[in-house]
């Protein structure tokens, strides 16, 4: 059984530094963050693109993310503005996996796809608004 105190943070890889700060915010108020991708294994390339890695490495990273999603009770998906070119899509798959597993779904930013409009999906314009709500719940 997952704990509602455990949170998975999903975003495009190039936002990793920003999400490390969000993880620190959550840890400071007593939450656990299961997103091991934030450790930055295979750091982003010089142009800011997520590492490609070998097929074996990518498979290992996907399995780690899947385990981290399963361990969490809450999925927070950081989205991109309409028309953004940051659309490789891993965060969308992670969000779908979390929905399927019955995790509490939260979006920070604009709704990027139809699944962000499902009943029960919480949407916050900013990280500060989302964090304020999570702190209230503590």
What does this structure look like?
The protein has 138 residues and is of the alpha/beta class. It has one domain: TPP-binding domain (Rossmann fold, 3-Layer(aba) Sandwich), CATH 3.40.50. Helices cover 38% and strands 18% of the residues. It contains four helices and five strands; from the N terminus they run E-H-E-H-E-H-E-E-H. The protein has helices at 16-28, 55-71, 90-100, 127-137, and strands at residues 3-10, 32-33, 72-78, 104-108, 122-124. The chain has a five-stranded parallel sheet. The longest helix is centred in the middle third of the chain and has 17 residues, at 55-71.
Task: Write the SSE topology.
Layout lengths: L2 E8 L5 H13 L3 E2 L21 H17 E7 L11 H11 L3 E5 L13 E3 L2 H11 L1
Looking at this protein, list some descriptive labels.
single chain, 138 residues, alpha/beta, Rossmann fold, 5-stranded parallel β-sheet, 38% helix, 18% strand
Task: Give a quick summary of the entry.
By secondary structure, this protein is α/β, with parallel strands linked by helices.
């Amino acid at each position: 059984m997952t704990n509602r105190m455990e949170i998975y943070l999903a975003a495009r890889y190039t936002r990793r530094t920003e999400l490390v700060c969000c993880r620190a915010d959550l840890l400071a108020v007593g939450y656990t963050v299961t997103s091991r991708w934030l450790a930055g294994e295979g750091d982003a390339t010089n142009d800011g693109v997520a590492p490609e890695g070998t097929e074996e490495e990518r498979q290992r990273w996907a399995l780690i993310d899947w385990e981290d999603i399963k361990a969490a009770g809450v999925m927070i998906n950081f989205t991109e503005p309409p028309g953004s070119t940051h659309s490789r899509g891993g965060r969308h798959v992670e969000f779908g996996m979390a929905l399927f597993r019955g995790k509490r779904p939260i979006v920070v930013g604009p709704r990027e796809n139809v699944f962000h409009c499902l009943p029960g999906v919480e949407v916050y314009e900013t990280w500060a608004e989302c964090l304020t709500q999570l702190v209230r719940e503590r």
